[in-house]
Amino acid sequence: MNQNLEFIKEELSAQEKFLESVIKIETFAKKYKKLLIALGVIVIVGITVYGVSEYIKSESLEDSNRAYLTLLSDLNDESAKNILKKKNPNLYSVYLFQKAIKDGDIKALNEIANKNMVVISDLSKYQLATLKKETTALSSYLTLKDAILKDFALFQEAYLLIKEDKLDEAKLKLSMIGLESPTKNVANFLEHYLIKK
């Protein structure tokens, strides 16, 4: 019997604690009802805005990719140009770069070279130096601090020097190509050719 009384007391104590915590939660909910509703609305609106924003970005990316693919098949499609220019200016610069190379358009390459886009600008500068087929233009490219195609420019400059019969200068340029460069193997063949010459 004593055991049953202890069991009943423990049960009542557990139920009292449960009821007490429910009452505390209810009191808290009543006290901060407006704040909790506002917080819930803010969270829902935030999630909705984020979802819509991501959807719009995705659609814009798809539109610009479609426009770019259209331009790859028809370089003069004005509608695709306008879509790409509006929705993805970086990809539009890539398109302009491709078109300038295909057309040999030095003016367009100069414009791209002066844009604030590291890779495309650098590639345009290299392409301009290459189109000029002068060692001075390539040397000018080589002075750029972060020239991406430095080893290719060294190789190309060495080749032009060989054509001008300036073999010692060509050897010097070839020796400046880094050992880890993919151009080094071809440069070694060219150096070997110079030794036999």
Major beta-sheet overview: none
Poorly predicted ranges: none
Structural class: mainly alpha
Task: Quote the average pLDDT.
Answer: 84
The helix/strand order is: HHHHHHHHHH
- What's the N-to-C terminus distance? 115 Å
Helix content: over 70%
In terms of quaternary structure, the protein is single chain
Shape: elongated
Describe the secondary structure blueprint for this structure.
Elements lengths: L1 H30 L1 H41 L4 H10 L1 H15 L2 H8 L4 H15 L2 H8 L7 H14 L3 H9 L8 H13 L1
Helix pairs in contact: 2-3, 3-4, 4-5, 5-6, 6-7, 7-8, 8-9, 8-10, 9-10
Descriptive account of the structure:
This protein is mostly helical. The chain has a domain of 65 residues. The chain is 83% helix and 0% strand. Helix 4 packs antiparallel against helix 5 and helix 5 packs antiparallel against helix 6. The mean pLDDT is 84.
Please give a handful of descriptors for the protein shown.
single chain; 197 residues; mainly alpha; elongated
What's the quick description here?
The protein has 197 residues and is an all-alpha fold. The protein has ten helices and no strands. The termini are far apart.
